Amino acid sequence: MVAWYSFVTIFILYFHGSFQPFTTMSVQKEIKRVTTHTLHEFKAKGTKIAMLTSYDFSMAGIVDQAGIDVILVGDSASNVMAGHETTLPITLDQMIYHASSVVRAVQRALVVVDLPFGSYQGNSRLALESSIRIMKESGAHAVKLEGGSEIRESVERILTAGIPVMGHLGLTPQSIYKFGTYNVRAKEEAEAQKLKEDALLLEKIGCFAIVLEKIPAQLAKTVSTSLQIPTIGIGAGPETDGQVLVLHDMLGINKEFRPRFVRRYAELADVMHNAVSSYIADVKSRDFPNSGEMY
Fold it and tell me: Where are the alpha helices (DSSP H) in 82-232?
């Protein structure tokens, strides 16, 4: 009886043009997620890795659908979302909030979350607890830490829990008060040598990738070719295995920040300003809403 009913239903749907045979039925294309293994394959094939920051659901969805490989939920949210002068004030709870918003929008990209200042330095147990909270409460795929040999114990402890770790060397914004400047790092031989040693160390203990920020291009090339794991550059020249920018910088939302390494792909601050100005004018002139925009 059930089989007969199903046959009749299919016949009726087919007669009315509402049924497609299973052989021609459209199937939604499966989205292949980017993983840490994918990034290693990219390096092996010479395929560059594209990485951008995101901090909220709407923007992350747009970035992901465009085909980005990696989304970094950066502690730069402290600057571009909260208006702080440095990355230091943002808390772990706030990073988890931003990461959760991003993860809910993402179908393809690998989502990496910055461990904020004070959540891992000098305390490997705290580093592990912070990382576990990020992974469990946000659903992110990996964490990122700034530093080399000085954070070795924290990195190793996080890795024991099976949590992927991305390193970060060169200009490390969480140490801005130590540096006292955002100038290019590792220009001197001693600092360059330490960076090379730290990169090899991070690879050895298990990091799956390393961000190289604002260092000489030749040094970035040397480090990148010395590693089996991929490097992601920002202000580090073209010879790294990928590139990362802050979304608000490359879209021209943040108009005040114009370093040499940022290429503007849009001027959205101007577009948004003009749109808001037009809206205000339409409201004031009673042009909005018109007869087609009401019930």
Answer: 92-103, 124-138, 152-160, 176-179, 189-205, 217-226
Q: What percent of the residues of the chain are helix, what percent strand, and what percent coil, each to the nearest 5?
A: 45, 15, 40
Mean pLDDT of 47-56: 98
For residue 204, the one-letter residue type is K
Q: How far is CA 246 from CA 50, 59, 79, 254, 258, in A?
A: 12, 12, 11, 10, 12
φ, ψ at 237 (rounded to 5°): 85, 180
- What Cα–Cα distance (Å) separates residue 45 from each residue in 200, 233, 283, 291? 21, 18, 55, 58
Its CATH architecture, for the domain 34-275, is: Alpha-Beta Barrel (3.20)
Distance, in Å, from the CA atom of 192 to the CA atom of 186, rounded to the nearest integer, reads 4
CA torsion sign, 35 to 37 to 40 to 41? Answer: negative
Identified catalytic residue from 156, 213, 256, 267? 213
Is 189 a catalytic site residue?
no
Task: Give the start-to-end residue ranges of the domains of the chain.
Answer: 34-275
Q: What is the rounded distance in angstroms from the CA atom of residue 295 to the CA atom of residue 147?
A: 58
- 92-103 and 57-65 helices cross at what angle (nearest 10)? 50
Of residues 117, 212, 143, 142, the one with CA closest to residue 171: 212
Express each pLDDT in 92-125 by its tens digit: 999 999 999 999 999 999 999 999 999 999 999 9
Give the torsion sign (CA, 283, 285, 290, 291): positive
- Give per-residue burial for 160-179: e unless 16+ CB within 10 Å, then b: eeebbbbbbbbbbbbbbeee
For 141-166, the pLDDT digits (tens) are: 999 999 999 999 999 999 999 999 99
- Ranges of H-type helices in the chain: 2-15, 36-45, 57-65, 77-80, 92-103, 124-138, 152-160, 176-179, 189-205, 217-226, 247-250, 268-284
| pTM score | 0.88
